[in-house]
Amino acid sequence: GFYKYLVDTYGIEKMKEYLALTSTILPDIEIGLKYKDIFEKVFGKPFDELYTDWIRSLMKLNYSEGDLIYKAPNAKIYKLDLLGEKLGVYSVEFGPSTSYVGSVNPRLVFLSKDGKEQGSKTLIALDIKYDKDKTYVLTKAENFGKYENQIWDINSNKLIAKGNISAFDVDDGNVYIARYDTKKMKTTISGESLELLIDKYVTYMDVKNNKIALLTSDYQIIVYDLVTKNTVVLEDNAMKGPYLRFWENGLLFTRVDEKYVNPYYYDLAEGKLYKLGENLLVYDFVVDKDELYYVSYIPYSINTGTGVYRIKAQKKEADLVRNEPIFKFEDKKYQYGSEIAFRIQKMIQPLTWIPVYEYDIENDIRRGYIIFTFANIENDTFLVLTPIFDLILTDTQFGVTYSQYVSWLTMKDNYQLFASYYYPTNDYNLTGMLRFGGLSLSPITDMYSYLTFSFKTRDIGLLDSVFSLFTANAPAVYLNNIGFGLLVSSYAFGMPYNVQVFGLLSNDKLEDLFNPEEIESNFFIAGLVDIALTKSTTFEGKVALNLNKPDKASYDMSVASTLFTDNAFLFGNAIYLRNSGITFGVTNPSVETVLKHGIYTHFFVEMYMQGLRLYPSVGIFAPFSELAKPAGESQEFLFYIGLNSSPHGLPLSLFSLSLQTEGY
Fold first, then answer.
1. Helix (H) or strand (E) holding 339
2. At 627, is the secondary structure helix, strand, or coil?
3. Which among 112, 107, 82 has a CA at the least distance from the CA of 95?
4. How much is the average pLDDT of 192-217?
């Protein structure tokens, strides 16, 4: 295994040194100051690098790597362009904030040729093109339920074209567009004095010097001369992509060579193919004179990532690949099946069954129940069945009562629904969210409209509150609520943020919810703001306000910061933990709660169960009224163990305890 690799690679004496250092009781003061860990002190490399080397040795892979001039850990670099004396790198960065508020950080970074950042801007793009001093992007957009691709001029924030656009380019101010017809299964390429129809799907396009190069979904390269109208087809059917570019007298592109992805150059004048690098793993690349810059994975990174490498470009003649497909026909008996029967079979198999025992000391009641959960094959719809038995066993009394909790959760792209029922009290909870559609205001700003509702007879209990965390966060003040609002998601100020504003009707009595005489007292304005301050720190603010009673506004403002990004699997991979941190907040939780204005702080950990995300937390709530007491008076605080769907906000309390300081 791993330690045998260390012995074979570094020798038995190094392993003895490692064992000696790890067997001591006192910690080594050099670890953390001079060395990253004990492995680096002994073997010269930290654990993550040694582990990667070991995995590579097992896979028998011998990737060549150039000079790593730019690292993008925990990020995916999608495109690399040569812009005169600079490099343009488009990447999407991830981090704990991606989980906390659902945001990523798409950036276009400008680098010097030695990998130093010289500037950046926030962009969301499927593809980026540069023409003189202008930048153009191809983005995916939604307009009231209809999805389309759009071409934008970033410099003037101008929409150039929209529709089913698969590829585009801009040359000397002229825009060339590939539009795919899904019914006819044909692509129309249009531009300056050009209207070309082909029976293929175009994945990428490049235009230069009156020539247009097309990369199709079947890995064919087609070059069309805009002047002579001649067409050249590269007779090579090896896997290529995702990009191709004109360079010198031909084209640059990547090609799959068994377990490697290497850079190639095809000379259109000579009709010859040249390999520019050997045993590489290249996603995208550019060539500047005799230097080749390419994008590949970072070998040594905790959360993996990508980077930009630099090597000397080779020019070794290679052969075109012309694989003749071999078709083998074999008679087999067709097996009929029913999708409905398959779905039912999967749905009736319990996903989890969790036995729980509780003892109510005050009423001497022993409660036992089992939480059965069922899910569909998409894992976006869940059924929860929980039979509950209460046993009363005293010297004078004996009895067994039965009750039943049932809930249904559905989480789709355009709607979410949570419904629950409790027998024998006939209490219910119906909460949901419906998204009507979206509108793209710019390449980095989208707006969506929502209808939300929440109807309850009462708070059914802890079990219902826990399962409702998995569904839509519908704004609510009293038991019955219905609201309409807008969500704006944007990167307009260089950081990802979401802003929601709702008009909300709320009342404890359903029959009074739309009562004209109580509209003013029922109407609330609810708002929410999520901001990713950094890749590991986020801010969230919530408020619900009745204009006639501003003194009873509920609010919650908090900052969540990540302390550790370690991860672990528990209970046979049933639970996955990662991203632990601390939250600081100020809140007035609700207009009808025993908790009033105060501050709170808690430690949290991100937890996944069957793909569902939760945040267990441990913290303290301190009311302002207690903090404002004169010195010497006793103060009362609330210690809690909670659960939430976000690290932000005062969580649902699973256990709480009043803590009191003694006065003097």
1. helix 339-347
2. helix
3. 107
4. 94
Omega within 30 of 0 (cis) for the link into 424: yes
Cα of 188 vs its chain's centroid, Å: 34
Which residue carries 């004990």 as its tokens? Answer: 38
- Based on its alpha-carbon atoms, the radius of gyration of the chain, rounded to whole angstroms, reads 31
Domain 67-316, what architecture? 7 Propeller (2.130)
Helical (H) or strand (E) element with 117: strand 117-122
Q: What's at 539, amino acid-wise?
A: F
**What are the pLDDT digits (tens) for 445-459?**
999 999 999 999 988
Strands 415-423 and 427-442: antiparallel
Any idea of the CA torsion for 394, 398, 404, 405, to the nearest 10 degrees? -10
Residues whose CB falls within 8 Å of the CB of residue 131, separated by 6 or more in sequence, listed in order: 170, 171, 172, 173
Q: Which helix (H) or strand (E) holds 349?
A: none
Give the DSSP letter of residue 31. Answer: B
Contacts of 624 (CB under 8 A, 6+ apart): 596, 597, 598, 599
List % helix, strand, coil for the chain (3-state, nearest 5).
10, 55, 35
Nearest alpha-carbon partner for 541 in 613, 656, 646: 646
* In the predicted structure, residue 161 carries a pLDDT above the cut 80: yes
| Cα 147 from chain centroid (whole Å) | 20
Contact 623, 597 (CB under 8 A): yes
Phi and psi at residue 53, to the nearest 5°: -60, -40
In the numeric block, the tokens 């699973």 are attached to 654
The closest alpha carbon to 432, from 406, 414, 458, 457, belongs to: 414
Q: Rounded CA gap, 240 and 210, in Å?
A: 24
- Which tokens is 45 given? 């490399």
Domain ranges of the chain: 2-59, 67-316, 554-664
What is the SS3 assignment for 38?
helix
For residue 593, is pLDDT > 60?
no
Alpha helices (H) along 411-526: 462-468, 519-522
| Packing angle, helices 2-10 and 12-22, rounded to 10 | 130
Using alpha carbons, list the distances in angstroms from residue 535 to 367, 528, 582, 585: 44, 20, 15, 19
Partners of 311 in the β-ladder: 292
Q: Long-range contacts made by residues 8-13, C-beta under 8 angstroms, separation at least 24?
A: 9/53, 10/43
CA distances in angstroms from 480 to 416, 453, 518, 524, 551, listed in the order given? 17, 8, 14, 13, 21
Stretch 35-44: mean pLDDT, rounded? 86
Q: What percentage of the chain reaches a pLDDT higher than 70?
A: 97
**What is the bridge-based pairing of β-strands 305-312 and 381-393?**
unpaired
Helical axes 47-59 vs 2-10, angle rounded to 10°: 90
pLDDT digits (tens, 9 = 90+) for 83-120: 999 999 999 999 999 889 888 899 999 999 999 999 99
Distance of CA 486 to the CA centre of its chain: 22
Q: Considering all CA atoms of the chain, what is the largest pairwise distance in Å, rounded to the nearest integer?
A: 103
Asked if 93 and 107 count as a contact pair (C-beta separation under 8 A), the reply is: yes
Q: 437 — phi, psi (to 5°)?
A: 155, 175
Lowest mean pLDDT among 167-171, 311-315, 392-396, 543-547: 392-396
Residue 285 and residue 82 in contact, taking contact as beta carbons nearer than 8 Å: no
Task: Give yes or no for a contact between 232 and 222, defined as CB atoms under 8 angstroms apart.
Answer: yes
- CB-CB contact of 289 with 303 (8 Å): no
Instruction: Take residue 437 and report the two structure tokens written for it.
Output: 């559609």
pLDDT over threshold 70, residue 272:
yes
| The pair of three-digit structure tokens given for residue 221, joined into one six-digit string | 């390269």
